[in-house]
Amino acid sequence: MATIYIDNKAYEVKEGKNLLETCLTLGFNLPYFCWHPAMGSVGACRQCAVKVFKDETDTRGRITMSCMESVSNELRLSISDADAVQFRANIIEWLMTNHPHDCAVCDEGGSCHLQDMTVMTGHNYRRFEYKKRTYQNQYLGPFINHEMNRCIQCYRCVRFYKDYAGGKDLDVFAAHNHVYFGRSEDGILQNEFSGNLAEVCPTGVFTDKTLKEHYTRKWDFTSAPSVCQHCSLGCNIIAAERYGELRQITSRYNGEVNGYFICDRGRFGYEFVNSPLRIKEAKLRDENSKDLNKKNLLNKTSALITPGKTIGIGSPRTSMESNFALRKLIGAENFYQGISEQEASLHKLILEVMNSGIAYIPSLKEVEEADAILVLGEDLHNSAPMLALAVRQAIQKGPSELKTSLPAWHSLALKEFIQQEHAPLFIANPLKTQLDELAQASLNLSPAEIIQLGYAIAHHIDSASPIEHLLSESLLKEAKAIAKALSKAKKPLIITGTSSMQEGLVKAAANIAKSLKTANLCFVEHECNSLGLAMMDAPPLEEAMKHVFLNDTDTVIILENDLYRRTSSGNVDRFFEACKEIIVIDHLHNKTTQKASVLIPTGTFAESDGTLINNEGRAQSFFQALNAKNELIQESWRWLNELFSLQKGISIKDRTSPHELLEEIAIAMPQFKGIAQAVLQSDFRINGQRIPREPHRYSGRTAMNAHDNVSEPKPAQDLDTPMSFTMEGYRGEPPSSIIPFYWSPGWNSVQSVNKFQIEIGGALHGGDPGIRLINNKEGMSSYYDNNFVPIELKDQEWLAIPVQHIYGSDELSIHTPGVTERSPQPYIGLNKLDAENLNLQDGSKVTFETDGEEVTLPLRIITELPRKVAILPHGLQDFNCHLPIILRIKNLKKSR
Amino acid sequence: MFSIIRSIWLTSLHMFRKRATIEYPEHKAPLHPRYRGRIVLTRDPDGMERCVGCYLCAAACPVDCIALQATEDENHRRYPEFFRINFSRCIFCGYCEEACPTYAIQLIPDFEISEYDRQNLVYEKQDLLISGEGKYPGYNYYKVAGLDAGVKNKGEGDNEEPPIDIHSLLP
């Protein structure tokens, strides 16, 4: 700790920080542009000037950029010094000489850092009489809009895009006062994190193009804290509603999870909520759906549920509450996970390893602290993008031997110092990944080879670990090198996951972690609640099918799950034929909902409260942002609870809040102990007040519904959470788990998050939200055995493995037009030599047999792909390779 | 006694003064041009809608009686998809006019908007839009704004330099 004097007042502050962070942490309003808490300082914009004095007697002082000055003991500075104030005002005035007269039509307006800073420095009149500089814009794809006139040359965009996120196609061009931030030519921004440009840019150069389609100012949104539904990492987001539509997703700061950023799938994949494919009406077999109101739908559905003769199928893409409510309704013994046996057993194994205590399960923040990383069989940019971003930060920090006295915020100096020295990163994946450029070694191997490589590494570190089989001499050498680097590291991290559906990978990764003793181990799953569902420890889908075929079960309840994505359509068809009644609860029409005899609409994440468990076992709650006018659109858990009440003869009016449900979960399944702490009780109040979802500037309340009825309706009530759907309520800082939007007096932009943190870039006041449920205690006694079974592939046989695509593999985000545009068409990928042997060129049609069906797909020649391995995209909307790993017999028509 | 007579005298004198009361429906009150009455949406000199859907009027409105939705045409010109004022709530404070950066929303000297049915006081865009420029002739926001919305090309607006040729090395 050091003592510094700000305007002659003493403050105890942390050393090693810069003055700007320190002043902001202390609550001073100091304007800045180029500095960003995640990206550090470069001292480019000259906006954060303060006066620093030599000692007590010094009256002249010197003006310095606070972001470039370290905190030192007994340092004296002045923020309010007249010279410093004048200096900052001048800087803004210069920046504004070329800034266009655009605010009224600029999407940033109302959440603009430049507006805030201009007001903060007091600049209000343009004295500069000369003409304004203009630029031509570029087309940057379906997600980001470009309006270059507004640029203030802070360089944040390129620093984020190139240096932080590793993008290649955004740069700064031209010279002096002509600098241009854009691509070398028009085109789609390729980086997976391009959406963050809209938040990183302090003004409106880069804005969210999907928001433009239904533009709303920040102050007009009804926002709710939410959790991303598009991969297993559980990034925190803010979901914003206006006029009954979900209109924007922005990142919600969580120091432990996603920090300041989210990926493009998470940011732009929200449009399924507004999709025309939404289920808005209930359907009951042989009934006119128009007459179905909530009451008779409940009664009729309840009549179909006979205890003991009904089974329920849960889902990894819905909340814990919904899954549990289903389990409660039909009984634990009748509840099944809605995923394939293969995936379920993989999850079970992952849970076993996570619980075993052989390794620490790091959060994304902790991933950034790793000093050697091994990625086994995952293309992180496509399966868990934010994890890839975290890995990049860890690697770009440089090897741990590289000792420097430079503080972590001094980003440009550090970059110069580190140069191309990277912390060791090793990647073994069938395909090239975007992280390869940072890797010491990136090996494109078949799944079996990756597994054996893993065993070999573990065996090198600890000879008690089982030995590998059938590995070439060169790979053994690689394994040795990787083993050496990992054992040298203080915080080695092994990342693997379920992308390629290989149990061996999990076991090999566990063995490496065990051999290292102090390793971090990170698993990636497919869906947002995969781990939560796995923790419920229910039998998989195949068991449910078996149960129906063998017993006289008459009704099946399918909860938010498209079974056709889980197993082969033949199996699902047979299963549905065997069921008498199929009750489907879902929010989007899909193949499964077409088979439903009872179809119950439900809310998406934006219309629901719920809790998800992410890949590190962190329970995080999301809250309702949207209030559907349709009474039938309510949370699945509410439907199921109401059915439960009907069955048990309890009054439906006795509502169960999400908090009570979570408490019930913890009682029913001790592995979820503590989960109820993830959400505040619904009667939580501050000064007797709720937390408003709407900012105090919310507009149009008395006109937005006036065309229907001039008498304003009663505002929607929220009985489940401590938040309100109105602008009335507590105006101070809400608890960290229920921050609906970031705003602070004078700080309208997203930068106001500074005011919510204990220290800049650290935890939110009251601690980052989320409760970790994995407390590894059990202890793994022995290594996993290497059950190597060589795969015999005949001449016409290939091992087909699934490949993840950030745009396309996710079931829900595909409904965003921009995501659809960027999603690949179904294809099959083969090695070049394999294709040549078969006399095939890129794009030729390949016919093969799978699950007894003949499929023809265009060929993509993939040079790096190992031989005898074929790849198929995972989870595409109109093409599903059901069991992700099957030996496929290629029935190849010889071309010509 | 004297004061009573004086009061009667003074009061009687008013009989010969000019009458302040006007026979309202037959005679209209003279209103100043800046009288804050009915709200209209004006058009720019080219006859296009002036409103750019910036939501500032809605934000300024103390009774929140303005609701709108911005949208864009094929030239990326922003305009309101709908624009609704609930006059049964409006207090004619004129803050919306003050907030408007484009002179689109203006209060005019007309107060004759009474209705028997409150629902009829909800005005939509077609009810608000007039064909003229109102009190502020000659102003066209898109000519002075930086962006290209089909009104002028980049660099052709008032007080704008031609767009930068980023390949040029000249100072």
From TrEMBL, chain A:
CDD domains from the UniProt entry: fer2, MopB_CT_NDH-1_NuoG2-N7, MopB_NDH-1_NuoG2-N7
Any one GO BP annotation for this protein: ATP synthesis coupled electron transport
Entry-linked InterPro entries: 2Fe-2S_ferredoxin-like_sf, 2Fe-2S_ferredoxin-type, Asp_de-COase-like_dom_sf, Mopterin_OxRdtase, Mopterin_OxRdtase_4Fe-4S_dom, NADH_UbQ_OxRdtase_75kDa_su_CS, NADH_UbQ_OxRdtase_ferredoxin, NADH_UbQ_OxRdtase_Gsu
4Fe-4S His(Cys)3-ligated-type domain residues: 83-122
GO molecular function: 2 iron, 2 sulfur cluster binding; 4 iron, 4 sulfur cluster binding; metal ion binding; NADH dehydrogenase (ubiquinone) activity; NADH dehydrogenase activity; quinone binding
Domain 4Fe-4S Mo/W bis-MGD-type: 221-277
Keyword line: 2Fe-2S, 4Fe-4S, Iron, Iron-sulfur, Metal-binding, NAD, Quinone, Translocase, Ubiquinone
Positions of transmembrane segments: none
Residue ranges annotated for the 2Fe-2S ferredoxin-type domain, each copy included: 1-83
Catalytic activity: a quinone + NADH + 5 H(+)(in) = a quinol + NAD(+) + 4 H(+)(out)
GO cellular component: membrane
Cofactor names: [4Fe-4S] cluster; [2Fe-2S] cluster
Organism superkingdom: Bacteria
Matching Pfam families: Fer2_4, Fer4_Nqo3, Molybdop_Fe4S4, Molybdopterin, NADH-G_4Fe-4S_3
Membership in a protein family: Belongs to the complex I 75 kDa subunit family.
Annotated PANTHER family: NADH-QUINONE OXIDOREDUCTASE SUBUNIT G, RESPIRATORY NITRATE REDUCTASE
Subunit and interaction comment: Composed of 13 different subunits. Subunits NuoCD, E, F, and G constitute the peripheral sector of the complex.
This protein's name: NADH-quinone oxidoreductase subunit G
TrEMBL record, chain B:
Cofactor note: Binds 2 [4Fe-4S] clusters per subunit.
Domain of life: Bacteria
Keyword Thylakoid: no
Binding residue positions for [4Fe-4S] cluster 2: C61, C90, C93, C96
SUPFAM superfamilies the record matches: 4Fe-4S ferredoxins
InterPro entries according to UniProt: 4Fe4S_Fe-S-bd, 4Fe4S_Fe_S_CS, NADH_quinone_OxRdtase_chainI
Enzyme Commission identifier(s): 7.1.1.-
Topology class, membrane: Peripheral membrane protein
Binding positions for [4Fe-4S] cluster 1 per the UniProt entry: C51, C54, C57, C100
Catalytic activity: a quinone + NADH + 5 H(+)(in) = a quinol + NAD(+) + 4 H(+)(out)
Start and end residues of each 4Fe-4S ferredoxin-type domain: 39-71, 81-110
Any Gene Ontology CC annotation: plasma membrane
UniProt subcellular location: Cell inner membrane; Cell membrane
Keyword NAD applies: yes
Keywords (A to Z) from UniProt: 4Fe-4S, Cell membrane, Iron, Iron-sulfur, Membrane, Metal-binding, NAD, Quinone, Repeat, Translocase, Ubiquinone
Cofactor: [4Fe-4S] cluster
GO molecular function, one term: quinone binding
HAMAP family, sorted: NDH1_NuoI
Membership in a protein family: Belongs to the complex I 23 kDa subunit family.
Subunit structure: NDH-1 is composed of 14 different subunits. Subunits NuoA, H, J, K, L, M, N constitute the membrane sector of the complex. NDH-1 is composed of 13 different subunits. Subunits NuoA, H, J, K, L, M, N constitute the membrane sector of the complex.
The protein's role, per its UniProt record: NDH-1 shuttles electrons from NADH, via FMN and iron-sulfur (Fe-S) centers, to quinones in the respiratory chain. The immediate electron acceptor for the enzyme in this species is believed to be ubiquinone. Couples the redox reaction to proton translocation (for every two electrons transferred, four hydrogen ions are translocated across the cytoplasmic membrane), and thus conserves the redox energy in a proton gradient.
Protein name: NADH-quinone oxidoreductase subunit I
Organism: Solitalea koreensis
